[in-house]
Amino acid sequence: MLSNVEIKAAINELLENATGLTVYGKEVTEGYTTPSLFVEKISKPFKRETIGFAKSGFTIKITYFQSAPDELDQMRLLDKVRDAFGMCVKIADRNLTVGEITHDYVGQKENILQISVDFDFYENTVPEETAEIASEYGLEIKKNEEA
Predict the structure, then answer these.
(1) What H or E segment, with its residue span, contains residue 75?
(2) In this prediction, what percent of the chain has a pLDDT beyond 90?
(3) Residue 133: exposed, middle, or buried by beta-carbon count in 10 A (0-12, 13-18, 19+)?
(4) For the segment 14-23, what is each residue's pLDDT rounded down to a tens digit?
């Protein structure tokens, strides 16, 4: 199963590489530099579908803080983010399919770009075997003679 730490680290690295901007977590409220991105992971419900699989997902909220509001710059960033996420994102040993990518404007003057990226996926909930794997297998076949 994917951990929240693996997800957040992979997304932050992807965004830093694609945009060249500093990425902060939602806990940072002062002392940050602009332009920068604030990234938040919002989990979707974890719902068991069968005994071995569960449906899960999350939404990534990316908020773009600029030195001064500039809509053209915001649209360039939106295009960079869409290109960076592409169709799939590698997180740990998984490739997750990217769902909807939407954007909106937030803040008191509604001039701060916020991008949302959705992910839905299935998790294998069966624990991995921890027993030793056999390295050899022997088979002996005997034929009984009939009278």
Answers:
(1) helix 71-85
(2) 71
(3) exposed
(4) 999 999 999 9
